[in-house]
Design brief:
single chain; Four Helix Bundle (Hemerythrin (Met), subunit A); 193 residues; mainly alpha
Length: 193
């Protein structure tokens, strides 16, 4: 495909999608580096082998998967000009995203209640890695939540008309990415101890 062909609008559309994918690939490499360091560090003598994933992280897994489903269907409905249902699903996605963040912090509380801390004399390399990975993911979820707010605002202002849905398409792609990232991190933390 010749990326220099097409209207100016088509070129901008392709450029924005490519920029998003470049960012996603970069973030994937960052998390791959962190999880690789985790694997290498688990050979240390002070590594916790009996650490259990908090129950709140299990709940957050279900919430994040559900949020991807609601955002996907919101996009489909908006593209079909079913604006009212689309808006309700966007708001549902936002609520689920906030619930995910809440559950992550509840998971941190569970870890602390068991006597594991991020830093200090009560910390371990295991818990420091877990906090770091989850906090980095939460930073990306925060950006994703901001994109959902922007999509809700733009949809309210009726900017997604006549096939001009690039904003929501990019937001949904990024949201799915951070959701898949959490599924990967959860499974990684579950199986690699």
């Amino acid at each position: 495909m010749d990326y220099t062909q097409g209207t100016e609008e088509e070129k901008i559309y392709r450029a924005k999608k490519n920029m998003l994918w470049f960012g996603i690939i970069s973030l994937t490499m960052s998390f791959a580096g962190l999880t690789s360091a985790y694997v290498i560090s688990k050979e240390r003598k002070d590594w916790l082998t009996d650490f259990e994933i908090p129950q709140a992280f299990y709940l957050s897994l279900g919430v994040i998967i559900l949020s991807s489903i609601t955002f996907h269907f919101a996009k489909d409905l908006i593209q079909k000009n079913d604006d009212s249902k689309g808006m309700w699903l966007l708001i549902t996605t936002l609520i689920l995203g906030i619930a995910f963040v809440y559950l992550q912090f509840r998971g941190f509380s569970e870890i602390i209640a068991k006597g594991y801390f991020f830093t200090g004399s009560e910390s371990s390399i295991t818990t420091s890695f877990i906090y770091l990975v989850v906090l980095m993911h939460l930073a990306h979820i925060s950006v994703a939540l901001i994109t959902v707010l922007v999509v809700i605002y733009n949809h309210y202002k009726q900017k997604y008309k006549k096939g001009k849905t690039l904003g929501i398409e990019l937001a949904v792609t990024f949201w799915h990415f951070v959701d898949i990232l959490w599924i990967y991190l959860f499974l990684f933390l579950y199986f690699v101890r």
